[in-house]
């Protein structure tokens, strides 16, 4: 993704230097640790940044409010993007720490891992999420990505409190077997917590985080089993989106928003 996408004061592009990556890490710390109750390492707490060994190899998609500045000072949203070639340099994808992604790795074509998505509290609007998705769409088109995947989180660490959305995902969006990931042994949490007849899809969708619903709208699938992530105070599922399964509606949406920023309002 070499271009900049704009809508009003907001623009989306990749981080251009270390200061912008650090701004994304600072935003991540504010959202994940200050707001969501994740548990930082002493070094993270001292620096006020969320970081790991993957950050320097990945691309970092940014939403920037240009009224606050056109660089690090304006970062209000971020997404971390990791292609197969980058993962091969490191030795693995981040998702592999929670899920067996062997079947995904066997797929031909280009892979993209999505992760570490967050938006500043004051910018959690439909438009900001649309801008992030427009940026991902442009990146996917430029790099000819065939399959996207990653960990998506539901808040809290009590599976029973999330029985409805987890059961819904298991019964209605389970990935086909040929590319279905599974939670690693020892981390596996059963998602079928309610009998099928007790799962109301409308209520379940309301209970899902906006990011997970966004994946589902793009034709996304869910892996087998969830993982309790006590560091981040979440329950994680593995989401997979094959780009050739994206509905015509969203293919046309991507093409339209690439030409007209205001078309993002239709997402």
Task: Tell me the layout of helices and strands.
Blueprint: E1 5-7, E2 10-14, H1 18-35, H2 42-47, E3 59-65, E4 75-83, H3 84-90, E5 99-100, H4 102-105, E6 111-119, H5 126-143, E7 147-155, H6 163-172, E8 182-183, E9 188-189, H7 201-207, H8 210-217, E10 221-222, E11 226-229, E12 234-242, H9 248-259
Shape field: globular
Over the alpha carbons, how many angstroms does the gyration radius reach?
18 Å
Low-confidence stretches: 257-267
Average pLDDT value? 90
Question: How would you sum up this structure, described in words?
Answer:
- 34% of the residues lie in helices and 24% in strands.
- By secondary structure, the protein is of the alpha+beta class.
- Strands 1, 2, 3, 4, 6, 7, 9, 10, 11 and 12 form a 10-stranded mixed sheet that branches. Strands 5-8 form a two-stranded antiparallel sheet.
- Helix 6 packs across helix 7.
- The radius of gyration is 18 Å and the shape is globular.
List keywords for this structure.
12 strands, 267 residues, 34% helix, globular, Aminopeptidase, alpha+beta, single chain, 10-stranded mixed sheet, two-stranded antiparallel ribbon
